[in-house]
Amino acid sequence: MAQNNSLVLYDVHETVDVCSNVGCVKTKATPSRLLFAGFMAGAYIAFGFIFAIVASASFHPKLGTFPNLSLFKLLLGAVFPVGLIAVLLGGADLWTGNAHIVTLSKMTGRASVKDVLYNWIGSYTGNFVGSVFLAFLAVYGTGLMAGGLFKDVLIGIGNYKVALTPWKALWLGIGCNWLVNVAIWLYIRAKDTAGKVIVTWFPIFAFVAIGFEHSIANMWAISASIFASDGAISWVQFFHNIIPVTIGNAIGGFLFVGFYHWYLADGRNAIKELIDFVEVLALFVFIMVLIPAGIAYALSGLGNIATWLVPLIISVYGVVMTYLVRRAL
To answer: How many angstroms separate the CA atoms of 203 and 233, rounded?
Structure first.
């Protein structure tokens, strides 16, 4: 931390220290706890997305009975924050938040590159499993998204997301996790529960209404679209979105929130910290995004079987990698 707190801008040092401690604890979690906490975070974000579709579907600009783009976006954004509020108050491990929180632990010397990689792999895997489970619940379990307007809106959202160019998806991912982690930062700085809810709600409302891309939310939205469309949307297309959005989320959360506040509080060895971030991001993307994308591509010729086989194999792969990386620490 900074040697002289009187030189720290905006009194960020206290919040940096709190975030760093939280991130350090996250890196020490056992694989089973990390995966379970990640599962819950993916599920909570999915609940928020389901709620958002139910609340806004009638105003979808092309499919709704009362088409109004602005109202559709406002309602979608207004109720979606219930997911992150549940993550923060309920206690769960969301990978997009770890792009900020756990990297702060690394920059303050409380965690290593391997610690960050372990947490990222475990939380991302858990988020994926939780998201896919909620996709199954929404489409096949409850039938809520299996027909009618909700299904049409869901598939429309899925088609939009997989059609994004990598360049656009990258920048939409950066903007998204910038705001998500501003919400987390404000949540930690707030002093009471009501204040924490309010300061979390506004940035999340903004990112959804603007139309930014959140990798974990997209895990639910696109996988649910795959199920609801009977495979018309594929897992290969899923990764067309997830690869650039994940990279963008990591950059947005780290650079514009975690690194920024750490730099105000300390800032020593900044170049080294940037290089270390690039290293861990490259390893993470290769292990948890590119290899699963290769699995999806390899199994794409199996038709409808791939709809179920791909998420199953990727889930098992992620769990195994979590345990292997933990053992290597």
So the answer is: 30
Return d(Cα 121, Cα 273) in angstroms, integer.
20
As a CATH number, domain 5-328 is 1.20.1080.10
- Angle at CA of residue 217, ends 54 and 76, nearest 5°: 35
Q: Do 294 and 83 meet the contact criterion of CB atoms below 8 Å apart? A: no
The stretch 268-296 carries a mean pLDDT of 97
Residues 184/101, Cβ–Cβ less than 8 Å:
yes
- For the chain, the domains span 5-328
Q: How many other CB atoms sit within 10 Å of the CB of residue 189?
A: 16
Average pLDDT over residues 72-99: 98
CA distance 154 to 78: 18
What whole-number distance in Å separates Cα of residue 44 and Cα of residue 106?
27
In angstroms, the CA 114 to CA 121 distance is 10
Report yes or no: 289 and 125 within 8 Å, Cβ to Cβ. no
Exposure string for 150-179, b = 16+ CB within 10 A, e = fewer? bbbbbbbbbeebbebeeeebbbbbbbbbbb
Residues 124/104/25/285 CA torsion (nearest 10 deg): 20
Burial of 51 (0-12, 13-18, 19+ CB in 10 A): middle
pLDDT average, residue stretch 272-298 = 98
Give the pTM: 0.96
Question: How far from chain centre, in Å, is Cα 232?
Answer: 24
Nearest to 129 by CA among 59, 223, 53: 223
- Find, among 322, 328, 317, 316, the residue nearest to 30 by Cα: 322
